[in-house]
Amino acid sequence: MNNTIQKTIEFVKQKLEGAEAGHDWFHIERVWKLSKKIAKTENCNLEVVELSALLHDIADPKFHNGDETLALKISREFLEGQNVDEVMIQQVLFVIQNISFKNRGEAPKVLPIELKIVQDADRIDAIGAIGVARTFNFGGFKNNLMYHPDLKPQLNMSKEEYKKSNGTTINHFYEKLLLLKDLMNTEEGKKIAKERHDFMLNFLDQFYKEWNVD
Ligand code: ADP
Ligand code: NI
């Protein structure tokens, strides 16, 4: 393994010590491996892909008072310390800055392939069985309700319905997780996402069935 990648792994592991289980080193490791798998099917700069995957959640604004610039600052400082050249630093920072689901409205029109790959990998780790586990872990971390029976959330809800179901962990499937398969950039990403999407639909069916004991 390339020495810069090895150093980056050590740096990220140490930085993310004690992180919430859905956003910890193991999330990074899965995204890194998924990124490498997708990268095999695309013509791309593998080092940019790997560095971006490893650094993409180094300082998630959710856990840092909404600070959107901290991750860029920490990553630049680290990469400069490793003597990574400026062009590559800028490519990696571009991925980190534009990867998020939240920012999809403001995303640049043409995405570099390295961003497409790491974004697919990050989104794939949000769905399927791992997605279910991460989402309930995050909901527990926030002390949210799992579900509220007054309203079964669904895609395309009215604003009022949305408000009522908002804040439950099950609702997160409808506001985000079930939308991800159609946002995949790469063919390989689409393939992996499909199986995981279908698993979530089955999970939700079973969840409602078990909730409604009759
Ligand atoms: P992004 O940075 O792409 O917007 P997030 O970091 O917000 O994505 O979300 C990553 C994962 O954290 C989600 O896929 C989900 O598992 C969990 N998560 C985020 N927000 C919530 C929420 N409100 N309820 C439950 N899980 C959540
Ligand atoms: Ni991530």
TrEMBL record:
Organism's domain of life? Bacteria
Q: Which residues form a coiled coil?
A: none
Which PROSITE patterns did the record assign? HD
Where is each HD domain found?
A: 24-127
Q: Which SUPFAM superfamilies match?
A: HD-domain/PDEase-like
Name of the protein in question: HD domain-containing protein
